[in-house]
Design brief:
With 232 residues, the protein is of the alpha+beta class. The protein contains 9 helices and 7 strands. The chain has 2 domains: 100 residues, Beta-grasp domain (Ubiquitin-like (UB roll)), CATH 3.10.20.30; 127 residues, Fumarate Reductase Iron-sulfur Protein, Chain B, domain 2 (Orthogonal Bundle). Bound molecules: FE2/S2 (inorganic) cluster (FES). The site of FE2/S2 (inorganic) cluster (FES) has 12 residues, from loops.
Length: 232
Amino acid sequence: MEYTFRIKRYDPDVDVKPHFEEYPIDLEPTDRVLDGLNEIKWQQDGTLTYRRSCAHGVCGSDAMRINGRNYLACKTLMKEFGKKITIEPLIGFTVIKDLVVDMDQFFAGYKAVKPYLIASEAPTSEERRQTPEQLDRYEEATKCILCASCTTACPISWTNESFLGPAAIVNAARFIYDSRDEGTLDRLRIMNTQSGVWRCRTVFNCTEACPRDIKVTNIIEDVKRTLLLEQV
Ligand code: FES
């Protein structure tokens, strides 16, 4: 079936501003958008630049805007769209080239919430055990692949550079509710700052954008409730 990919292109070494280029391409409706991008790069225009690695929805590197919404190109089938699709880089980030954006600010927010286990006891040869109920409390947050789809779908993130953003909050919650972790108070204090959860206006864009179906907004609301109850 004949499709047209309308792709936003920008090479800062050559272009004054971004522009769209169109590529006709023959694909099956069951092909993924990433298959189309690969075909264009390998057969039509080797200068087209985008990130991808695992091609199976695990690494989170090929998040992009397709017809105005964030998707992972490797998890999205052509049959979800019409014959012509528009592909753009994630918004809210500086474009490095074509569909590749600078994610330094995104990962700075992620690092700021201390996304690792904080425990005073030295590791032993034994596992740090938990009950299934304790695991249930935070397991959903472990599904995050840091693709930035949620954060770049959030209108607060577009206008407020200091907001940590939905992905960072999900990763803070992943440890806040982990029974083995001792950094909860620290992370709750970070969540309670001007960059934290209170910036969220419960728009639900983040939940809609998450390719892993994480209920991102619910997790953010959960952290807000914990802050109120704990009176951090
Ligand atoms: S290429 Fe790894 S998530 Fe799509």
